[in-house]
Amino acid sequence: EWDGFKASLTKQCGSLAEAWDAIDPTHTGVLTSHDFQTAIVRKLCICRAPEARRLASHACANGVKVTWRDIGISPEEWSAHLAKKRAQKSVGTATTAYGAGFAPNPRSSTPTTRSAPLHAKQQDDILGSASFSTGDIGSRPPALAMRPSSRGRSLS
Question: Which of 67, 106, 149, 156 has its CB surrounded by the most CB atoms within 10 Å?
């Protein structure tokens, strides 16, 4: 039953370390037996309560608490997982802090545009300092130069 449980965690979450992140919402690395049971039944929906009780009793080495080690994560795997999370977090923080136009996607080599709205200064940088007037059609973008006025008047 325990090996099937670990296989289900890996299949659903990608790895045991990712599964532990889903099970441990406070990221303390330690859960009570009850919290462990609640997480695998309600959050991950892997089993029902009776199976969760048996799994928790198997996982609790000291009978009270469950740690990431108890579900079979090695210290090396956990350290690598934490390093990966820190790297992903620092990429997101740097992109947000400096307002870069393109944010690297950690899962792809293709840059993706950010979805945050542009500030007025950024819009000015994109549009330049061009001002459009109704009398000077040559400086207007083609889409606006060809569109009739909303009041029925010609733009020229």
Answer: 67
| pTM, entire model | 0.55
Does residue 102 contact residue 112 with C-beta atoms inside 8 Å?
A: yes
Burial class (CB in 10 A: 0-12, 13-18, 19+), 136: exposed
Measure the CA–CA gap between 79 and 15, rounded to whole angstroms.
13
Residues 6+ apart with CB under 8 A from 30: 24, 65, 66, 67
Q: What is the reported pLDDT for 1?
A: 84
Cβ atoms of 36 and 23 within 8 Å: the answer is yes
Q: How many CB atoms lie within 10 A of CB 17?
A: 22
Q: Mean pLDDT of successive 10-residue segments in the chain (156 residues)?
A: 91 94 90 92 93 90 83 93 89 56 52 48 48 48 51 54
Residue 36 burial (CB < 10 Å; 0-12/13-18/19+)? buried
Residue matched to tokens 């210290």: 75
